[in-house]
Amino acid sequence: MSEIWTQRYDRPDYLFGMEPTEFLVTAADRVPATDALCVADGEGRHSAYLAQRGFDVTAFDPAPTALQKARRLDVAKGVTVARHQASLDDWDWMQSYGAVVAMFIQFQGPEARLPTFERLRQATRPSGHVILQGFAPRQVDYGTGGPSDRENMYTTDFLEQQFSGWTLHHLRDHDAPVASGPGHDGVAALVELIAQKPG
């Protein structure tokens, strides 16, 4: 999968644009600025924005072409982000953060979902937050971005199960127009989560 994303990001423009999603802007208003981990961060638009908002951001992505563009974006935005080349399997999940941010992350098949969510929970400190946005299964029918496998997408029931015992400050499934570069463009089926780990 890293080879696929390396090729997809190998282009002069930003595949998913340079600005954060509207949801992340809203989430940053609701979660105190803290140290944050941005998971599979791609070209850096979300991590750079959080750094602008005062978060101490660490980010990783497996694609070197994405990291090159993310570092250029840091310079353009005047921010500092600790960036690393790593896959979901390579990352040291024993490190913990006050916020773990997973925006449109892609799994290596549906069977990878459960261990991935276990890692997200593990990397969140007590009283910390997980901020997550992705696609609902009906996104496949819209054809405006995202994976082609419905089983790789989110439902509110699935997220409620994965964060059972956590405080769910925000959990929403809705359709909205998205204009995030050529990679995400048009009406999309979005699922959003802000969950706080018990203290």
From TrEMBL:
Biological-process GO terms, alphabetical: methylation
Keywords annotated in UniProt: Methyltransferase, Transferase
Domain of life the protein comes from: Bacteria
One Pfam family this sequence matches: Methyltransf_25
InterPro entries per UniProt: Methyltransf_25 (IPR041698), SAM-dependent_MTases_sf (IPR029063)
Any one GO MF annotation of this record: methyltransferase activity
Stretches assigned to the Methyltransferase domain: 37-128
Keyword Protein biosynthesis: no
Protein name: Class I SAM-dependent methyltransferase
